[in-house]
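Throughout our pipeline, every protein is held as a single compact record rather than as scattered files. Such a record has a labelled line for the sequence and another for the backbone structure tokens. The remainder of this section carries one protein's record, kept here as part of the documentation:
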Amino acid sequence: MTSRGQQIAPGADIFETLARAAFERLPPAFRDQLGDVVIRIEEFADAEQLASVDLDDPWELTGLYTGIPMGEKSAFHSAQQPDMIHLFRQPLLAEWCESGVDLADLVNHVVVHEVGHHFGLSDDDMHALEDAAE
């Protein structure tokens, strides 16, 4: 969409659609276990979220998994908040503009990485999962 020759940044609804599409591309063995994971589209990470990953600059964080990885859960964790994947719209838009990578591919990459954290996967495992989701 354009206005006076300028590109209008995709809104949260577009990011939600792209994130859901990324979930749908995951292998069924993973996708079937994500029913309770909530996707949240936020403009930026807050101070607490940044501190949790040792960052100060909100432009540096494009996504974050919050919750307890599946391998660490027990019956005692049932009253906790739901597991969430946070996508930070402004940093994603900045990376999209700077890198020239397709926005859907960028969101897919971040979603797969955060899903990997949900499952307690290593970075190597996450790269393999991302390759399988393409």
